[in-house]
Write a structure and sequence with these properties.
globular; alpha/beta; 8-stranded mixed sheet; 8 strands; Rossmann fold; about 280 residues
Length: about 280
């Protein structure tokens, strides 16, 4: 956690594209907001970010992270991040969104220090959820440095993804991140594959912190409607899994006994300070 920071920064990271980072980020933000917390969702997949598409926000008509960075650099004394945030509202829930640039070429104008400066102006949020691109870029590294929690999203459905996962987790360890800060989350845990998740845990040398089931149909319907699955009336196992994951951040008991959780947020805090 960055010195003096009061917001809880939850970064969604992976070494493989297309495995559900944005789905998880949007649903975490929605679930935390549903619990009554102030939440901002920041999309740092600067060239191909999909948060606005998933939430049906008019990306080309709303302020972006580039607009916010330029304004902060031009007049830091009078800068107010709230002028550059767009609210998602649905099912009685509201949370703020800061999208990536509308044009790909504009992404090159965003720098790491600019993003960190913006994060420092958002400390009035209880939670800041950050969606990232699947790489160890300078930007991602800076953001993970100041994150409270890194949700390292994984899949175990094909060999290249496991290779990337192993290489990425080994890199995380070499970079010196506290292992209590990094949470290995297995997505699509019940996919029908020839790879046993238990074998993946053996390869990694660490168990998955949490497992989320696969339900392509429910998630696809959610994305098509622009409503996060967690806010829907769906009785799918996937929605319950995500809802119970949110509960780990708010110290709420799991919805049912089948939860894949391994402990509440307060237990995580105890582990973190014990390690320190």
């Amino acid at each position: 956690m960055a010195k003096g920071r009061s917001s809880i920064v939850v970064t969604i990271f992976s070494t493989t594209s297309g495995i559900g980072k944005t789905s998880l980020a949007t649903n975490l933000a929605a679930g935390l907001a549903q619990e009554g917390y102030s939440v901002c969702l920041m999309d740092l997949d600067l060239q191909f970010g999909d948060v606005c598409n998933y939430l049906k926000l008019p990306h080309e008509k709303i302020p972006t992270i580039l607009d916010a960075q330029d304004a902060l650099q031009k007049d830091p004394e009078n800068f107010d991040i709230r002028e550059f945030l767009t609210d998602y509202e649905g099912h009685g829930v509201s949370f703020s969104v800061l999208p990536p640039p509308y044009k790909i070429e504009e992404s090159y104008r965003i720098d790491e220090q600019g993003v960190l400066s913006l994060l420092n102006t958002m400390d009035y949020f209880k939670f800041i959820v950050v969606d990232t691109k699947a790489d160890f870029s300078e930007l991602n590294m800076h953001v993970m440095d100041v994150s409270t929690i890194i949700n390292f999203l994984c899949v175990a459905d094909f060999v290249p993804a496991i290779k990337n996962l192993k290489s990425g987790y080994d890199a995380i360890l070499r970079f010196g991140y506290d292992t209590n800060k990094v949470r290995l989350i297995l997505n699509r845990s019940n996919s029908q594959t020839l790879i046993d998740p238990n074998d993946v845990e053996t390869i990694l040398g660490r168990p998955f912190y949490y497992k989320i089931c696969n339900d392509f149909r429910s998630m696809n319907e959610s994305i098509q409607s622009g409503c996060p699955l967690i806010l829907s009336n769906s009785d799918s196992r996937l929605r319950k899994d995500i809802w119970n994951l949110v509960g780990l951040y708010t110290n709420r008991p799991p919805e049912d006994s089948k939860s894949s959780s391994k402990g509440g947020f307060m237990n995580w805090m105890k582990d973190l300070f014990r390690a320190g």
